[in-house]
User: Fold this.
Amino acid sequence: MRRQVRTVNTASPPSPPAAAARAWTALIVLVALVLLATSCTSHEPQSTAPSPSFGIAYGNRLVGMSDEDLAAALDDAVAVGARWVRADLAWGDIQPDGPDRHRWYVFDRVVRAASERSLSVLPVLAYTPKWARPAGCAGDNCAPADPEAFAAFVAKAATRYAPEGIHTWEIWNEPNIQDFWRPAPDATAYTTLLRTTSRALRQVDPSAYVILGGLAVANTRNGDISPADFLAAVAARGGNRLVDAVGYHPYTYPQLASAPSSSATAWQGIDASQDSLHGILSAHGTPDLPVWITEFGAPTNGPGRASDGRRGATGATTTHVTEKQQAAIAADAVPMAARTPRVRALIWYTDRDQSTDTSSRENFFGLRRADGSAKPAFEALRGAIAAHGDRP
Assistant:
């Protein structure tokens, strides 16, 4: 703050009483200025948390793309202002035939293409090849029969990609639901996997940053476990002290992340609800552990009805949102992430629709339609990221 300097007319000095009064006035003003400056510098709230980074999640699609499609997909990440590319580094893709054969080249090209565009890669370490599954469990979403075998794969991945600048790793995807952890979600088994995997990563790369696999929004029933219940069980076994961040997938569609609600929303589950992730982490001694939103978005087609977000337009048969509402969700999520103190990343799922088959809404989460044309959400996300930036 600049202080004003006053000149004095020495030709006609003021009388002593007037001079004294003015001196006291000047002193009072000076003290006020000092106190104001002290208030501005010492008591103004300071934000020490960095602004979140933004990204695009591609699932396991990048490794199977042609060079042309891969380039187009990653060019979209650059165009919207993303920093991160979240992509599966699937064990089954690299070692489909056994522990002694590797196909690193399928992921090498993803890493190379991202590097050429100055994009950081967040590999999701997951998915079990047939030879490494428990007896009687079918599908790559089976938990590994031997966590040490998975850790050996992870150590080789870190050995290969840490020199390429990859130091951030997400351990599995949605391990709290049956769709991604079979035969059934198991916090004890996941914590064991987390322990062996984090140890393997850090032995190879001491600077490794480990993210607990993104938790799906679900209720504890029919085999699934809610994010709060699952995280509490993992933390009770020390899993919160094995990671540098917690992954979370707080899909809120058909509503905006910022929409007020009489009951806790998925987004409020970060730090604003009774059983929030932050509350659980605090109760287990890690209150400063950040949250990475490694998936967020909304589908624009499916087998049921579309919603534009209005209360009357949402019902039991709602499976997706209008394209206009998807754009509103994208524009809203970026400032919400910036306003939520513990969020360090927001990664949109996904770049492009998988197909035009309306039997499943999973085909329609893209910023682009299956034919490559952009939905309104593409420009909405780009504009929101440009407005809020990625300011570490």
Remarks:
- The beta strands are 53-57, 84-90, 120-126, 168-173, 209-216, 245-249, 291-296, 305-307, 318-321, 343-349.
